[in-house]
TrEMBL record, chain A:
Originating organism: Fibrisoma montanum
Name of the protein described by the UniProt record: NADH-quinone oxidoreductase subunit F
Keyword Cell membrane carried by entry: no
Positions of the NADH-ubiquinone oxidoreductase 51kDa subunit iron-sulphur binding domain: 340-385
Pfam families in the record: Complex1_51K, NADH_4Fe-4S, SLBB_2
PROSITE patterns in the record: COMPLEX1_51K_2 (PS00645)
Gene of this entry: nuoF
TrEMBL record, chain B:
Keyword Metal-binding recorded: yes
SMART domains listed in its UniProt record: NADH-G_4Fe-4S_3
One Gene Ontology MF term: metal ion binding
PANTHER family attached to this UniProt entry: NADH-UBIQUINONE OXIDOREDUCTASE 75 KDA SUBUNIT, MITOCHONDRIAL, RESPIRATORY NITRATE REDUCTASE
KW Iron-sulfur (keyword) present: yes
Pfam families on file: Fer2_4, Fer4_Nqo3, NADH-G_4Fe-4S_3
GO cellular component terms, semicolon-separated: membrane
Protein name stated in the entry: Fe-S-binding domain-containing protein
Entry similarity comment: Belongs to the complex I 75 kDa subunit family.
Species per Swiss-Prot/TrEMBL record: Fibrisoma montanum
Amino acid sequence: MATKILTEHINVPGIETFDVYRKQGGYTAVEKALKTMTPEEVVEEVKKSGVRGRGGAGFPMGMKWSFLAKPEGVPRYLVCNADESEPGTFKDHYLMKTIPHLLIEGMIISSYALGANKSFIYVRGELMYVIHILEKAIEEAKAKGFLGKNILGTGYDLELVVQPGGGAYICGEETALLESLEGKRGNPRNKPPFPAVKGLYQSPTVVNNVESIATTSWIVNHGGEAYAAIGIGRSTGTKLISASGHINKPGVYEIELGVPVEDFIYADEWCGGIRPGHKLKAVVAGGSSVPILPANLILNLANGEKRLMSYESLSDGGFQTGTMLGSGGFIVMDETTCIVRNTWNFARFYHHESCGQCSPCREGTGWMEKVLHRIEHGHGHRQDIDLLVDVAKKIEGNTICPLGDAAAWPVASAIRHFRDEFEWHITNPQEATQPGAVYRGEMALV
Amino acid sequence: MEDNKPQLFKVTVDGIEVEVEPGTTILQAARKIGPEVAPPAMCYYQPLKGSGGKCRACLVRVAAGSAKDPRPMPKLVASCITPVQDGMVVENTTSQQVIDARNGVVEFLLINHPLDCPVCDQAGECDLQNFAFDHGKATTRYEEDRRTFEKHDIGPYIQLHMTRCILCYRCVYTADQITNKRVHGVLGRGDAAEIGTYIEKAIDNDFSGNVIDVCPVGALTDKTYRFKNRVWFTKPVDAHRDCPTCSGKVTLWYRGEEVIRVTARKNEWNEVTEFICNTCRFDTKKTSDWVIEGPTKVSRSSVISANKYRADTIKPDFGKRLAAATYKPIDDKRDTSQLDIQQLPPERFAKLPSANEN
């Protein structure tokens, strides 16, 4: 049985209430951290654990914490990024609605470690019912003395605020999130200064993903080294994967990092294989913004070894033959999926969600969407494919925030790996625009 | 007291070294060297705090981060907001990567721009025009419909042409920092974002006219000057008057004996040096209102200076290179002897320089 860190007690009835959660060993980490450890010791444990940011970038969390500037007389803030809006990712939503106290407990420990006395959970606006669940959980924790003034008699004060966002994808970018939290238009900020120096209200701020923060209670309870022992290499611990698409058992799975991708897709413990009678065509491994990979490349590395579910293995081969773990939005597509239509759909999303601040992203995302729309609807030209590659290249890396990259990668990778399909759409418009028409040419299906 | 002197940073831009104070941005350091190496800026505006970083026109490559850490930066950086480090080596137009990125930015800015320069009052002093001339291509790959907006009236003095806007946010910063109340802002998101007042309303403020001067394109123009003349037919003259609300230092634009426009004075980077009030700008248009100082030193980026767009001044072979890029000899092996077509001698093409040649 694989190790479960976040979802261990998730099936216990009534786990969303304080009493049940407490009975399952909840909030012991808060007691341990606040009563027996100094904030520096907590940071040290998190560093030792090697846990990497679960929001998508995979930056080591302990390192992020240690970058936090600590000037005298300036408040520090912890902001939990619960604006999960990456298409294909729904793990934070699941975690917060089923076991809200895990996040609250993590927030208390993390805030204590960072010396923050006011912390925010920025939840995506569409998830209003989750916000109510969180607020109820905060009330319960407050009533039991785990939040508010003088927590457990240790003299540490913490106020937790749940803030609904307006539902913009861009507000999941940390600086746009901070702008939005301050009540402004959610435009990403220019960096530097980084939030660790000047974040929320110009004060040092750490922004962490829900899943990252939720792991801290286990790390405090069991120690950083125990956490680092799980997983593989620099990908330590477990990761929630939101599996969706043409698989038998879609859902949120907690896996130990390092599970072979093949096992994850086909084993009964997880996705349970591709739906009957169909074959695997492509996988988007980490949420819509990471490069799409065809079946042969997602299961095996370019050198023939098995690809594993880990930060390193998934990004092996760079963008030529690799992808990224990202936020863990694992979208599986069988041979009935039209890659052109899928790419157009992603491009449409990024076009809609671009904040419009910097020119390459504002204009480029719209351009890509329009060209893809044309190809999908049978009006493409041969040069459109190279045009798309070029536009994607000119957006990538030239924008303020990673949304430009996120918009460019799916398009560039789809053309890199499925160029035939784009060409088929352009050269056979009548056939390609039939309802349900899919390219049936030569490709590796598994 | 030598210790109190700030340590100057040595920065190299396109092979030219310059010493600047710590905290200076790459763009400012390059401007210190001169206009030849200064990156273009469409959104950065030195007098406005917080501006910059949006248009990506000023992207440069940092070939060496600093003397201590000489690694190159992984991505191109926006020079207007990136502070220099001691020993930094910056590549502006000497890097092909930068040239390509700027080509891309021009292309992006122009795909939804109406290109109505022939009827635009900004033509001739337009930053986008200059930028496109320096870094753009003469052709477009964009086939789709251009973006349009509903027209909004923002008062008797300022004309808003949203289709021309490149969303530099300069007018937003101006209203924030110079006027006491901002009533306009950016509404909407992505390429549907537009400048406007939330509820249709006139921008009414003593200093509102300055948004016209800061606008890099023809999105905000002077209604009192609308369609009156072309910039290159007018003659700028520095003048001042005793104004109770502002410095009163302006540039008068003459057509013959008539003052047809009043603007704030701009420096060589097209940036306003002192903002002026609406009374000076819109209501005092008689020579007798002003004390004339003399002809304005014309900025380098204006068409009326030194024939900016004359092909032989800046890009001697621009026309030829364009021809070479557009007309390529066709490798046609078919038998055309029966078709009464006169074959062009191959030497005609050999004379054209290659399109890739710089």
